[in-house]
Amino acid sequence: MKSRLDCFPCCFAQVFRTGMIATDDQQTVKHLLDEVGDSMKELPLGSSPPEILKLMYEKIRDITGNFDPYKEIKQKSTENALKMYPYLKKIVAESEDRLFTAVKLAIAGNVIDMGIGKVFDVEHELDKAVKGQLAICDYEKFKGYLNKAEWVLYLGDNAGESVLDRVLIEELGKPVVFVVRGTPIINDVIYEDAVQAGIDKVTDIITSGTSSPGTLLDDCTDEFKEIYYNADMIISKGQGNYEALSTENAPIFFLLKAKCHVIAEDIGVNEGDIILKGPES
Questions:
Q1: Domain residues for 54?
Q2: Which among 39, 64, 89 is the end of a domain?
Q3: Is 237 exposed, middle or buried (0-12, 13-18, 19+ CB in 10 A)?
Q4: At 156, phi and psi to the nearest 5?
């Protein structure tokens, strides 16, 4: 998905928020904003949002010296999600369609996103997702691909959210490979976050190698790309992965909440809608 002009001020605002988390030195944050502002001149409008943010977060790491500004926030987010894990399992166990309920919970978990700069209520989102309707619901297609798949490639998104991914993985009934980012960026899940969420107890974890908040294939390792191109079914969580892979001709199912109007308009839904969107063919 290509960026629109709307994406640039949004990304710039995210750099400011992250800079204020990374350091309490306002002069350093001012220098960061100056450098990012200069670098934005070199970015073509056709860049995807993950490409823009990859460059910006390189500046954040270089200028603030903080490699993982959201580390403590991610840990706390995962701790809170783990406290809800028994409750989540209970919701799934008592539902009429365990798999569909787990899918909706995983999508609802996509609200745990520090990058958007909004306050969110996880319990409210979970309740709304379980009881509500999906704006796009390719669930029958999802089941069809799952039945035929020998294994599933699962592209993770945010820390904390990965606890809800674990709940879905436990309902898939197929071997799964769970993918994390190669480098800390925003509150996206990296290996240690996935282990904290207990993903290692239910499936294998690999890194895509990318340092962007989305699976930019040109930025991924050869090992990951070989797995990606041989996958029978791919579950892609979150906006960043959608932005990076929306034009790919692959067996991808996008699970996300449309948290900004640019994403919503690209998909053809309303801002705030939850989506299970499968491949066209």
A1: 7-64
A2: 64
A3: buried
A4: -70, 165
Q: Which residue has the tokens 């943010």?
A: 53
| Residue 51 and residue 156 share a domain | no
- With respect to residue 1, please indicate whether it lies within any of the assigned structural domains: no
Say how far apart CA 164 and CA 157 lie, in whole Å: 11
pLDDT, one tens digit for every residue, the chain (281 residues): 888 888 889 999 999 999 999 999 999 999 999 999 998 888 887 888 999 999 999 999 999 999 999 999 999 989 988 999 999 999 999 999 999 999 999 998 876 654 444 555 667 777 777 888 999 999 999 999 999 999 999 999 999 999 999 999 999 999 999 999 999 999 999 999 999 999 999 999 999 999 999 999 999 999 999 999 999 999 999 999 999 999 999 999 999 999 899 999 999 999 989 999 999 87
- What's the rounded Cα separation, in Å, for the pair 179 and 252? 14
Same domain, 189 and 228: yes
What are the counts of helices (DSSP H) followed by strands (DSSP E) for the chain? 13, 7
2 found inside a domain: no
Instruction: Give the DSSP letter of residue 157.
Output: -
39 and 77 housed in the same domain: no
H/E stretch holding 150 reads none
Please report whether residue 105 resides in a domain.
yes
Q: Are both 138 and 23 inside the same structural domain?
A: no
- How many domains, the chain? 2
Question: Residue 166 is encoded by which pair of tokens?
Answer: 């674990």
